[in-house]
Amino acid sequence: MNYKNEKILTKIIRYSLPLLTIVLSLVITLLLYLENKRTYEKEKNILNRTYIKKNKKLIQEEVHRIYDYITHMQRSTEKDLKESIKSRVYEAHAVATNLYNKYKDKKSKDEIFEIIKETLGSMVFNNGRGYYFIDDKTGTKKLQSLNKKYEGKNLSNFEDAKGYKFVKTIIKTIKEKSERFDTYYWYKPNDKKPYKKISFYKYFEPYDVVIGTGEYIKDFEKEVKKRVLEYVNLVRYSDFGYIFIIDYDFNYLSHIRKDNIGENVLNIEDGKNIHRVLKDMKIIAQNGEGYYSYIQYKKPKTNLPTRKISFVKGLNNWDWMIGTGFYQDDIEQSLMKKEEELNEKFFSYITNVIIVSSALSLLFLVISIYISKLLEDKFKSYKKEIENQQNVLAQQSKMASMGEMIANIAHQWRQPLSIISTAATGISFQKELDNLTDKEFYEATAKINDSAQYLSKTIDDFKNFFSPTKTEVDSNIKELFNKTFKLLEAQFKTKSIYIIQDIEDINFKTLENEFLQVLINILNNARDELIKYEHERYIFINAKKIEENLNIEIYDNAGGINKKFISKVFEPYFSTKDKSIGTGIGLYMSHEIISKHLHGTLTAENTKYEYKDELYKGAKFTIQIPIY
Questions:
Q1: Which residues pair with 181 in a beta bridge?
Q2: What residue ranges are annotated as transmembrane (predicted)?
């Protein structure tokens, strides 16, 4: 931060809070006065005309809210059912797998299968409706715990109520060694009507079978209705507002009076001409929604006859009538009380606002001045501390990079030094034997010269990397990666690490050496993880232009980063490596360079992918920086 900006920021911290406090105090005081005056005048003028309208809107909104909740539950019924039966099958599959692994070295496969059948056959759920079945690839039923007559029978041509051969789908699941949901129509016990049923099958490899279960949507929907009604019975709004639900046979499903639930409204005689009232409300509900005014024979809390305005909405697919209402005597009492409150409140409020706002403004001013001074001191202290830490971290990162580069130089120099030594020794030996020809001499000296030139070029490459520069230059991403590979290729070759590239030809401006440092840090981290494994070692690099950004993905097949560590990889001094090979600052400095110097983002995540018909998992680092 330059000196001029620092002075501006210090002044902002010092004066902005006190000034803002004064302005806000005055504005809030004025707004409160104007708002209360406006509210008072408005409410006093329209209170008598709008109270019923507001209550009608309120009860409509409450009914719509409950209706929306119920329709949401209806829409999610099939989804929730699928999740439920899938979870059950996964549970059974895990039980079967554990039993197989437990006894596979102790009992025969047939004995183990009988144990699995006995165990799964005894597992019943969903209030006795749910059970597991096992089918093999011929369509033979191996387990059917609630209907033993089907066990051992070939049902491959079995059809549901609509002619669908669902056993064929089970056989297909086995052949594909997969899992799937299936829907068909089947009969409940003692019921001739077919109902929609959803099942889930999962392949069990040790016996080449599927384990499955299913549930009727109708049965699951009963559980949903029960949860819905439990929720609605708890809903209250305003002071005494509640939601009632009546089915189209006029039975109470939800009501503020618990004794009414399950009873027929006609038997309770809760209003005059109750049959006509219910019939009219049912017609309104079946046609959609609407208001209805009537005399309720017994008002809750008072048990007195009272005129009530209700709003009802029909849920025709469940034959439900959802409604609520308000009583006119409550409105008249509220109107009188509200008007008295407004008159008293307004005149006392104006005096209090002036006194309190003046006191608070003075108090906030003193506090804000103190906080501003405190913030200013803290800012200066924090700025100094950050500068010191950044200098230390930058130095550590530079030293760590230098150590890596020295190791790379050593790897780069081994082969040319060996060639020079071999050529020199060869011509010397040939000379002693007086057997050195001109051709052999010139070939040997050419090899020595080529190797020396390679050594010189290597020194130039590494010297350019360490050249201090803070100026953005025109760069090309392919060329930057080629420079990176030159600096690292010796170590990567000796460790049998293959780099798979998909790099587009993209030009952009950047701080080249800092960008190189980031690429080297990420690739070295991948190298350190890959050398722990004996399988084929790959690093994949994708670089492309996405909109106005350069997007780079670098990922490996080293197994990925532990989930509990992945959020910490960019923290200073955090490392999963041994302290002898990891300082924990490489990725931190890379993140600092990308975010603060190159104005981009650097993120880390685990990824799964397929390469050469093999499934791999590894850590993926994504760099995104603006091109322009």
A1: 200
A2: 12-34, 346-371
pLDDT higher than 80, residue 546: yes
pLDDT at 453 over 60: no
Other CB atoms within 10 Å distance of the CB of residue 95: 16
Collapse the DSSP code of 211 into the 3-class scheme (helix H, G, I; strand E, B; otherwise coil) and give the result.
Answer: strand
pLDDT tens sequence across 54-81: 888 988 999 999 999 988 888 888 888 8
Section 518-532 average pLDDT: 87
What would you measure as the largest C-alpha separation in the chain, in angstroms?
A: 134
CB atoms within 10 A of CB 381: 10
Q: What is the pLDDT of residue 391?
A: 53
Domain boundaries, the chain: 84-221, 226-330, 467-626
Range 226-330: architecture per CATH: 2-Layer Sandwich (3.30)
Domain spanning 467-626: which CATH class is it, in words? alpha beta
* Residue of 295 and 602 predicted with greater confidence: 602
Query: Is residue 465 over pLDDT 60?
Result: no
- Rounded to whole angstroms, the Cα distance separating 463 from 79 reads 62
Contact 274, 246 (CB under 8 A): no
226-330 has the same fold as 84-221: yes
pLDDT category, 4, cuts 50, 70, 90?
very low
What would the two tokens of residue 130 be? 């749910």
| pTM of full prediction above 0.90 | no
Amino acid at position 48, single letter? N
How far apart are alpha carbons 222 and 81 in whole angstroms?
Answer: 12
- Residue identified by tokens 């005894």 is 122
User: Which DSSP string corresponds to 105-171?
Assistant: TTS-HHHHHHHHHHHHHT--BTTTTB--EEEETTSBEEEETT-GGGTT-B-TT---TTS--HHHHHH
Contact 13, 371 (CB under 8 A): no
Residues 6+ apart with CB under 8 A from 291: 56, 309, 310, 311
> 215: part of which helix (H) or strand (E)?
strand 209-216
Evaluate whether 553 touches 539 at the Cβ level (below 8 Å): no
406: Cβ contacts below 8 Å, ≥ 6 apart: none
CATH hierarchy code of domain 84-221: 3.30.450.20
CA distance linking residue 437 with residue 392, whole number of Å: 59
